[in-house]
Amino acid sequence: MRITPLPPLQCLVAFEAAVRHASFTRAAAELHLTQSAISRQIQQLEEFLGRSLFVREHRALRLTIAGEHYAAQVQRLLTQCAEATFDVMKQHAALELTVACSSGVAVLWLTPRLPLFRAAFPDIQLRLVVRDGLASMSPAEFDVGVYYVRHQASADYTARRLFEEEVFPVCSPAYLAGRTLKPADLPGETLLLLEDGQRQWMSWPEWLAANGVNLPKAPRAQHGITINHYPQLVQMAILGQGVALGWRHMIDACLAEGLLVRVTQASASHGGGYYVISPNDRAQSQAARLFTRWLFEQAEAQRNA
Predict the structure, then answer these.
(1) pLDDT in tens, 239-281
(2) Among candidates 77, 23, 111, 20, which has minimal Cα distance to 298?
(3) CATH number of the domain to which 68 belongs
(4) 3 state DSSP class of 52
(5) Fewer CB under 10 Å: which end of the chain, C or N?
(6) Closest CA to 204 of 188, 275, 92
């Protein structure tokens, strides 16, 4: 059944503001309207009701008896409407979550674990944005991120370390064919190189230099294969097509399943790590807080496994 009679909502809003300020001029300033627009809306409301709501006096504005009664009801109802609207908006936002991460994090670490999160929090609507490099993201695009940070995250974000960095060479068991390799042997192997789009990640020349090996020439010019997508690079290593640099924690599942093995016990680090990133321009929603806590629980479980 239709609810009737109902005056125009903008007239009620104008009336409520005029009552609070006892002034059409100040009500107009609050609502970003002209004084004449407020006056017209009040007049429209009075014509709708068939009653005068204000007594207009020189430099004064006071409510009629009908206006006083109506103002109390309108203020109560508009307040209830605003509170109900806020509750719905808050609940809706609290159940939506946009997570951003690099392709390596998405494929190798996060995606296999997401069924656990969805089972624990089935009401949260999850959206995953996969983009390599935090610098390519805007704080407005996501609620929680998981990214490698080499030095320090932008001041736009709060960053909490999830995993420390440890980098070491990996390949398929078939590629090694029972051989034992040292860092100095690696320049003679087929090295799988990540293209320069993510320069904060450790490169082969950096890893080898950290382990006392100076390349006579770039791996690219020897036996290297260059790829611009880290999950594809890992897949090529699994298929026995070369040696890749693996980041501990990200590569752990492939090692545990026997798809990859460490080529050597030598490792290196820039001192960076994987961080949980939160934009500073807004408070975390309930969903973001739950997801952040879940990420650290997953990281702790992996360390203790």
Answers:
(1) 999 999 999 999 999 999 999 999 999 999 988 899 999 999 8
(2) 111
(3) 1.10.10.10
(4) coil
(5) N
(6) 188
Instruction: Kindly list the distances between the CA atom of residue 86 and the CA atoms of 24, 77, 94, 97, 161, in Å, as whole numbers in the listed order.
Output: 27, 14, 12, 18, 34
Q: What is the pLDDT of residues 166-176, one digit of tens each?
A: 999 999 999 98
> Which two tokens mark 166?
């440890």
Whether residue 105 is found in the same domain as residue 251: no
Domain span at residue 156? 97-164+272-304
Q: Can you say whether the dihedral through the CA atoms of 213, 169, 234, 162 is positive or negative?
A: negative
Overall residue count recorded for the chain in this entry: 305
pLDDT digits (tens, 9 = 90+) for 81-122: 888 876 666 555 568 899 999 999 999 999 999 999 999 999
**Interior/surface letters 120-150, b for 16+ CB within 10 angstroms, e for the rest:** ebeebeeeeebbbebeebebeebbbbbbbbe
